[in-house]
TrEMBL record:
One of its GO terms (molecular function) is protein-disulfide reductase activity. Signal peptide: none annotated. This is Thiol-disulfide oxudoreductase DCC. InterPro entries: DCC1-like, DCC1_Trx, Thioredoxin-like_sf. PANTHER family: OS04G0668800 PROTEIN (PTHR34290:SF2), SI:CH73-390P7.2 (PTHR34290). One of its GO terms (cellular component) is mitochondrion. GO terms for biological process: tissue regeneration.
């Protein structure tokens, strides 16, 4: 019974929609009936969100490592693989932050270029401390340290070495240190270091003809 009743109701509704006279009849019995056809389409409007994004704008930071003007007065060639040497180099670097008159060049770097440093090759510079003044003059040994210390306000440390016989004695002591510093610091001999660097260069360069060994 319920099924037949539902079918009869559905049939009546269908006839009502197909027959205009039935729609008029509906209007007669129900004056408030609105038979206006609702246009097809979206029932709700979708409004685009306008305005600027709420995400913060990221402004690139200024490079803090911008190169400083080339105003150095002396260049220090140092062995970056020497642990005891680096203590002194680090001290000079810290002092040089205020003065900016020393340019530091690590000869242990694969990028070290003798052509950029008065033709001084790795083996020569490993023999003793070398410094190059801005006019191209090369100084070595205690004299190099004296010039470097003067540039960072510590010239008084080596003032006494300007007088004899203290100067000659200081040179002798330094020469002994320079000769045995590799052994003292537990490193291989200079010949072994040179061979290792050459092998490393060959492996790094490969078949490149532009790479210098």
């Amino acid at each position: 019974m319920a099924t037949r009743g539902a079918a009869a109701a559905a049939s009546t509704i269908w006839k009502h929609r197909r027959n205009p006279s039935l729609r008029s009849l509906s209007n007669h019995f129900n004056p408030n009936f609105n038979h206006r056809i609702i246009p097809t389409g979206f029932k709700y409007q979708v409004r685009a969100i306008q305005g600027t994004s709420t995400d913060p704008v990221i402004t690139p930071l200024k490079n803090r490592d911008e190169p400083k003007p080339q105003n150095w007065k002396i260049k220090m060639l140092y062995d970056g693989d020497c642990p005891l040497c680096m203590r002194e180099v680090n001290m000079l670097m810290e002092r040089n932050e205020k003065h900016g008159t020393i340019k530091f060049v690590d000869i242990s770097s694969n990028d070290y270029s003798p052509e950029d440093n008065q033709g001084l090759d790795y083996k020569t510079v490993m023999g003793q401390i070398h410094a190059i003044q801005s006019d191209g003059n090369v100084v070595t040994g205690v004299e190099a340290f004296r010039r470097l210390y003067e540039e960072v306000g510590l010239g008084w440390v080596y003032t006494i070495t300007k007088f004899e016989p203290i100067g000659k004695l200081a040179d002798v002591v330094y020469d002994v240190w320079a000769k045995y510093r590799l052994q003292v610091t537990g490193r291989p001999s200079l010949e072994a270091i040179l061979e290792a660097r050459k092998k490393d260069k060959v492996e790094t360069c490969g078949e490149s003809k532009d790479c210098k060994i």
